Target: ABC transporter ATP-binding protein
Amino acid sequence: MTLFSLDHLSVRRAGKSVVDDVTLSVQAGECVGLIGPNGAGKTTLMRAALGLLPHEGSSNLARLPLGERARQAAFLPQNRDIHWPVTVDAVVALGRAAQGSGKLHAEDRRAIDRALARMGLADYRDRIATALSGGEQARVLIARALAQETPLLLADEPVAGLDPEAQLRTMQVFADLAREGRGIVVSIHDLGLAARFCTRLVVLHHGRVVLDAPPREVLSDPRLSEVFGIRGFLADTPDGPVFQPMAVTR
Ligand SMILES: Nc1ncnc2c1ncn2[C@@H]1O[C@H](COP(=O)(O)OP(=O)(O)OP(=O)(O)O)[C@@H](O)[C@H]1O
Model:
């Protein structure tokens, strides 16, 4: 089942083409890593796909009325500041606001508990969110997005600033959700984590999709070094593929 589809999506910002004619679809069961150098257009692509930026071409999400869009897709933006001195539980509960009337029902409570458990935050639920470390706050916001329990999750650099355990835990959660039949689109700079946990990698360069294939194929493609300006080491291990950037090539 197709959960996400972009058809010739283009975005211009300040007169410059930032996303250029992107056609892409994501099926249930896929965890798609959106990779590309700084400024490649990853954030712009996600925001336009969600209807948050003017664009040409079409996105199945941008076409939906607001309430329906929130039931179809959760979005974890890159900016992860929490401004309200409320409990972790209350922040995660906001993820349910789009799903119903605003009043929490038993099913909402269960979704909040599942999200807290998935992110290892059960013991944090009564802590004041603004009094947590940056990485802990980031995990709370991931839990808020998970609590929406939408068919599709778009996450913009969710593991930036997280410690290794939280990075692995988060990527494992995304991989598990995909295996459970959801669709994930995750922008990520850590190509090693992308190799391990994504089912497919889409490489964006100057706003265009230049590679779209399973991780091993993408990470061994000579075009990768042109795009990123690096040479990497790719190997198979019992835990899955590993990729380590080794040297700058330009
Ligand atoms: N509001 C804006 N006005 C003009 N140009 C913008 C604006 N926002 C982004 N851009 C430009 O669009 C391009 C893509 O930016 P975007 O944030 O989508 O890249 P990204 O791939 O997410 O980068 P990063 O990995 O650094 O987060 C960049 O060249 C950026 O300078």
About this structure: Residues 13-14, 18, 36, 38-44 surround adenosine-5'-triphosphate (CB under 6 Å). The chain has a mean pLDDT of 94.
